[in-house]
Design brief:
Helices cover 53% and strands 13% of the residues. The protein is an alpha/beta fold and 283 residues long. The chain has two domains: 5-87, 434 Repressor (Amino-terminal Domain) (Orthogonal Bundle), CATH 1.10.260.40; 95-282, 2-Layer Sandwich (Endonuclease, Chain A), CATH 3.30.870. A seven-stranded mixed sheet has the order 1-7-6-5-2-3-4. It comes from Streptomyces physcomitrii.
Length: 283
């Protein structure tokens, strides 16, 4: 199975640590000698080499100077910053409120021509109705113990942002697992409205809505929810963090995974039949 996004972020940290370790070994220095040259305790060297502590830009410059590899410093600093930015704690993101998260991404969405979104658990945000979004974001506020619940305002902002599906210049490819249709995160009325909305938005010219039936023969296992923006960035939603992937090789891996998942989905009349089945189940 592929490495999870959280493991990928840690692997990026370890890659930087391994390069620093190799520089020290190539320079013929012990852990203690390098620490003395850098002016810190040897335990810090061990923590950095074992990817327990992320080195600062200054740490990397000192390390490279002591090992005679000043020309490697800038690349290592960039790689280290990339590794740390891959993994962003949800709590850090929601500190300014759930509404802020919705509004902060409007321009990014406007700049994206092709959206590819896969979800195994929830209706994707761009397809959510206000009632469904309010229920989802209220759960998020409770899970993260936010001091102020602004889920209602955040839901309105999410729906406002979702108007982009009606604007020219954008295309949307959604793939969801059938279980999404039956996940009761909202009351019956809100769920019925949400499922009805899927029927309507799935018919828009710029939208492709695929649903992977629960009985489908799997050629790929369900994945964490991930969104691909053009061919330049992937965001992956985990319990504790949102992972941002920008390395071309990793983006390509997500695109290949998306295509495998998309190939298992049904579309058009078959997809509508699954949605209607879920609506009937509400009764």
């Amino acid at each position: 199975m592929p490495t999870s996004p959280s493991s990928a972020a840690q692997a990026a940290r370890k890659a930087v640590a391994r390069q620093l370790h190799d520089l020290r070994r190539e320079a013929g220095l012990t852990v203690v000698q390098l620490a003395a040259g850098c002016g810190w305790h040897y335990s810090k060297t061990s923590r950095i080499e074992n990817a327990v502590t992320a080195p600062s830009a200054g740490d990397i410059r000192r390390w490279c100077a002591v090992t005679g590899a000043e020309d490697r410093a800038q690349d290592l600093i960039v790689h280290s910053l990339d590794a740390e930015s891959m993994y962003r704690q949800w709590r850090d993101q929601v500190r300014a409120g759930l509404r802020h998260i919705q509004e902060s991404r409007i321009q990014f969405f406007q700049d994206t021509a092709l959206f590819r979104m896969y979800s195994a658990g929830l209706v994707p945000g761009l397809l959510q109705t206000e009632g469904y979004a309010t229920a989802v974001l209220r759960i998020a506020a409770e899970v993260h113990a936010l001091p102020e619940d602004d889920s209602t305002e955040a839901a309105r902002a999410r729906v406002e942002r979702s108007r982009i599906v009606h604007e020219p210049g954008h295309r949307f490819v959604f793939v969801i697992e059938e279980g999404v249709l039956h996940c009761r995160v909202a009351d019956t009325e809100a769920m019925a409205a949400q499922l009805g909305h899927l029927l309507a938005v799935g018919a828009l010219p710029a939208v492709s809505l695929g649903i992977i039936p629960v009985e489908a023969a799997r050629t790929h296992w369900p994945e964490e929810t991930f969104h691909v923006y053009d061919d330049r960035m992937v965001s992956v939603e985990l319990v504790s963090a949102e992972v941002t992937v920008t390395q071309p090789g990793e983006v390509a891996q997500y695109l290949a995974t998306f295509e495998r998942l998309r190939a298992m989905a049904v579309y058009g009349a078959d997809a509508r039949a699954l949605i209607l089945r879920a609506i009937d189940a509400l009764r």
